[in-house]
Amino acid sequence: MPRRRDALVGAARMIDAANKIGHAHAPYACATVGFVEVSPNSRNTIPGRVFLTVDFRHPEDAVLTAMDEALRTACAAAAATQKLDLEVKEFWYFPPTPFEPRLITKVREAAAAQGYPHQDIISGAGHDAVYMARVAPTAMIFVPCVGASATTRSRTPSPTI
After folding, report:
1. Which residues contact 104 (CB under 8 A, 6 or more apart)?
2. What CATH number does the domain containing 74 carry?
3. Residues 1, 36, 22, CA angle at the centre, nearest 5°?
4. Higher pLDDT, residue 56 or 148
5. Residue 31 sits in which domain range?
6. Is 57 inside any structural domain?
7. Contact 95, 61 (CB under 8 A)
8. HSE, side-chain direction, 13 A CA sphere, residue 150
9. What is the rounded CA–CA span in Å between residue 68 and residue 130?
């Protein structure tokens, strides 16, 4: 056991770190490891390589940048525990996209005028409105699901071990 260089053990520590980073930046942070690829992916072979994605979301760029830095530090520490090589690449970035305050006010007023309850939310999904906001004043209306929440920006680093 002491001679092993187990990439999956390192990845598990990185996944745990990503989760802790998300919780540390609550309430608006979101941290998701949604994809893990283990190689050779055999039940009795020590994994030699792991590729995983981490999706961070937060409405403030400075907080998201701090989350990214914390992940990189945690990944380096986790890789060191298993004597692993590490590569972290950022391959997707959505900058914060605040919507037009005047339109947001109009949406609130329209909901109230119709007698509907309303709640402001932060959305980090890549909706078409993100692109429309680049060329025209934009706002969005969501019909929420029970217990749903979201955030506004996404940075996706991918550690490869």
Report:
1. 120, 139
2. 3.30.70.360
3. 100
4. 56
5. 7-95+153-160
6. yes
7. yes
8. 17
9. 22
What are phi and psi for residue 141, nearest 5 degrees? -120, 125
- Residue 126's pLDDT band (cuts 50, 70, 90): low
- For the cut 80, the answer to whether the pLDDT of residue 112 exceeds it is yes
109 near 102, Cβ under 8 Å? no
Residues, the chain, total? 161
Terminal CA-to-CA distance of the chain, rounded, Å?
Answer: 19
- What per-residue confidence (pLDDT) applies to 66? 97
Q: Give the total number of structural domains in the chain.
A: 1
Q: For the chain, give the longest Cα–Cα distance.
A: 68
> Could you tell me the two tokens for 25?
């930046």
Structure tokens at 52: 């995983």
Please tell me the pTM assigned to this model. Answer: 0.78
